Amino acid sequence: MKKFLLIAIGVMLSTQALALSLTNTGTIIEINSYTDYGNGDVLIYFDTGLDACPSGGYISPTMPGYKTALSIALTGYTAERDVRMEVFTSNLWSGTSSNKFCAIRRIDLK
Prior knowledge:
Elements: H1 2-17, E1 20-22, E2 30-34, E3 41-45, E4 56-59, H2 66-79, E5 83-92, E6 101-109
Parallel strand pairs: 4-6
Antiparallel strand pairs: 1-5, 2-3, 3-4, 5-6
């Protein structure tokens, strides 16, 4: 019984650690790159509509698909097209405490 309880708690914690949410659909306001955080983390300022990360999302060069996600973000920004993101609300960017940015899992160009 104890073993089952430990497994159940582990599954619950791992599910919370991977909390995914969809953002609002809208235009990207600003894109910034930081050379000293993650060797090139990119912040995408965007009204997400989420309490966890209202300022937007971030991608890091260590993430799979970084170049493709950055390309889609830049295309959306320059063309002033709507985007929508799927973000990890439990994975916040550590570079600032005032603005909150969630890790981006997916970015869609509308």
